[in-house]
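Quick one: structure tokens for this chain, please?
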Amino acid sequence: MFHIISRPSLPSGTSMRSQNSGQPTSNLSARTPKRPRKRRANFPVEKLMEQFLEQSAQAEDNFYQVEERRLQAEDRRREMEHARELQMLQMLGQMFSSVSSAAAPSKASPPAARAPVNSSASSSPSCPRGQSGQVKHPSPRRDCFTQQSRLSTSAPQALVFDRYYSLGSTSHRGMDDDLLSLVKNTIPPLTSKKHKGQDGRIGIIGGCQDYTGAPYFAAISALKAGADLSHVFCTKEAAPVIKSYSPELIVHPVLDSPNAVEEIEKWLPRLHSLVVGPGLGREGLLLKTVKEVIEKSKTRDIPIVIDADGLWLVTQQPSVIQGYHKGILTPNIMEFTRLYQALNREPMDSSDHQHSLMQLSVAMGNLTVVLKGEQDVITDGSKVFTCSLEGSGRRCGGQGDLLSGSMGVFAHWAHSASAAGVIRSVNPSVVAAYGACSLTRQCNSQAFQRHGRSTTTSDMIQEIGSAFKKLFES
């Protein structure tokens, strides 16, 4: 017989948990999630960063002010030296005049026979030439003086000294260093306060069915040299091909449209410089459009670099760019020959390219002209500069497009620096041309060291960054 034993009942309100009331409650508290701490902004650090940026901007402004004062002092020093030299020459002229007066024959005696004068030596305003016809270059930092005789019927012959700059005197290493220093001063610093497009928005006018590589080379070179945005205005057929080369270019297929001038003109206020000619072709309708675009750009005072088929347009109609102080022409020897003959109506003297180049520049209204060759010769009609930086013997197609594209960027920088007073003694277009020529030659040299005979323009473009740093940032 089984007995059921009942469990004693607990008092009401008492639970089984009360039996374990003596156990610690630390486990419960450990499982309770902690409240996250409030993050407080570190205001002192932000203020320090703001002060640092302000001080950096102030230091940059101070640097440009000091550099401007240095250039002004240098200009004053050169003017004083020039004045002293002129004073010395006047004294020498007076001395020779008095000597010739004392040695003059009496009125009764017949006049002495005049010695023959070498016409080749007296007609040239540069340094004396030797028997070989080559210019004798003076030593660096020294001007070349020539003597000219002036006859007077009422007074004895007096010797007058005139001062001239030799065509070769600017090609020495000291002048190269001076120009390179000017180029460095025009390059804008990279700061976090700038916005996209501030360092250069470049427009390339060119690109047709037959030529799509040239506008790409010019546009991508402008970007690699430091421009922020690069626009290509080409024909409809060329646009898809150029777009496929790089997604970094802004391509406008409007060059052959009926309202091409209006389509391009609306972009001109946003552009800092224009490169005309790479891959343009010689179709009459395109050349007519480009001529009108150049006229519109001139009214906006935009720097214009003209190369390749753009030079063909200038050969046919020189007035399109004649006298424009922000224009730059970049012909090779064949293009230069056509331009010279079109302007001067006579054959060019192939033995003296520098003199012919100055004549062309003067005929074009002192336009800056760059003659590409073994040495790049640059002139604005008043002075001649030579960029003789070592390149290589490789002459693949497309190097001129690299030159013109990068020159568009340097032209924007140089004219902006000139407006700010950084450049005073040299034409900004000449400074821009020298910078682009130096960069192209350095890229050619570096690419040739890597690839030798197989060097192409694409290889040179890959060297733009390191070449730029070596030339202008070291």
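The two ends are 110 Å apart (CA to CA).
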